[in-house]
Design a protein that fits this description.
Number of helices: 11
Helix content: 40-55%
Distance between the termini: 50 Å
GO molecular function: protein-glutamate O-methyltransferase activity
Largest sheet: 7 strands, mixed
Oligomer: single chain
Number of strands: 10
Number of domains: 2
Strand content: 15-25%
Keywords: Methyltransferase, S-adenosyl-L-methionine, Transferase
Domain CheR-type methyltransferase: 1-275
CATH class of the largest domain: Alpha Beta
EC number: 2.1.1.80
Bound molecules: S-adenosylmethionine
Order of helices and strands: HHHHHEHEHEHHEEHEEHEEE
CATH superfamily of the largest domain: Vaccinia Virus protein VP39
Function: Methylation of the membrane-bound methyl-accepting chemotaxis proteins (MCP) to form gamma-glutamyl methyl ester residues in MCP.
Structural class: alpha/beta
Length: 275
């Protein structure tokens, strides 16, 4: 994109992005928009952000809209991100669910899963728990969703480059849960992969995934307006089983956003229980 972004174009793009995926762009992020969209404009022979928006609005251009959303979302993630949630899962939540008399599968939802590190880390903790307490935990199903097709493609493949593997994964877990691929990457083992089902889902849409015992919605609400956060937190509440848990990112909290959950202090770490 050679042309400068005009204030009108920037405002129109901010509105498009917020309506399409909830992301609230700050007032001075023109450089970010430019750098993330440069390639898409070139590939589509477009000269300005205004032309791009016009093209997206044309009927039959849904693919271009997806590509733009993909470019604008931040997919940063790593294995066992923040550690606490996974320790809380291992030491508090799984023992609690293991004691339950329910015959239903334990259902976990990773609601903005990016390239799969979050749901696969969860599956590893479950596998470790099962080995340490054989026969104690009932069937577990992990549903992992994201708005971005390209991150879901990576997640479904379950093959990661060394640099991605190095981010948060211990050598012991790498050895235990991955096999080296012929092209230098690392493939997640079938026993972990088969625990996770990936689906495309926009958190702004109405969804019918059924009820969950644990929802991880981490490092995504930060991009949304307070109004949208409230709305999503209400819908996540409806998607939890009675007594189910919500886990947010380390820098996220429910302060002033929802009184539908009870805060549970886990020393260290905080999770939220459905009221
Ligand atoms: C920063 S990553 C967080 C990944 C993971 N939860 C973690 O904490 O490591 C944020 C993810 O949210 C996804 N996302 C952004 N807007 C979304 C929306 N409206 N619906 C669903 N996913 C969305 C992005 O595609 C991205 O993969």
């Amino acid at each position: 994109m050679n042309a400068e972004i005009t204030p009108q174009e920037y405002e129109a793009f901010k509105k498009f992005l917020q309506d399409a995926c909830g992301i609230l762009l700050g007032d001075n992020k023109q450089y970010l928009v430019k750098s993330r969209l440069r390639r898409i404009l070139e590939d589509n022979h477009l000269k300005s952000l205004g032309e791009l928006l016009d093209r997206i609005k044309r009927p039959g251009r849904t693919n271009l809209k997806e590509v733009v959303i993909d470019a604008m979302t931040t997919n940063e993630t790593l294995w066992f991100r923040d550690n606490h949630p996974f320790r809380i899962l291992q030491e508090k939540l799984l023992p609690e669910f293991a004691e339950s008399k329910s015959m239903q599968p334990l259902r976990i939802w990773s609601a903005a899963c990016s390239t799969g590190q979050e749901p696969y880390s969860t599956a590893m903790v479950i596998d470790e728990f099962r080995r340490s307490r054989p026969g104690k935990l009932r069937d577990v199903k992990i549903t992992a969703t994201d708005i971005s097709k390209s991150v879901l493609d990576v997640a479904r493949r379950g093959e990661y480059e060394m640099i991605a593997i190095g981010r948060g994964l211990s050598p012991e877990r790498q050895k235990q849960f991955f096999t080296a691929s012929s092209n230098g990457g690392w493939q997640i083992k079938p026993q972990i992969k088969s625990m996770v089902e990936f689906r495309e889902l926009n958190l702004l849409d109405r969804y019918t995934l059924g009820k969950f015992d644990i929802i991880m919605c981490r490092n995504v609400l930060i991009y949304f307006s307070a109004e949208l956060k409230r709305d999503i937190l209400t819908r996540l509440h409806a998607a939890l089983n009675p007594g189910g848990y919500l886990i947010l990112g380390a820098s996220e909290s429910l302060n002033g956003l929802s009184d539908l959950y009870q805060m549970v202090q886990c020393h260290p770490g905080i999770i939220y229980r459905k009221k």
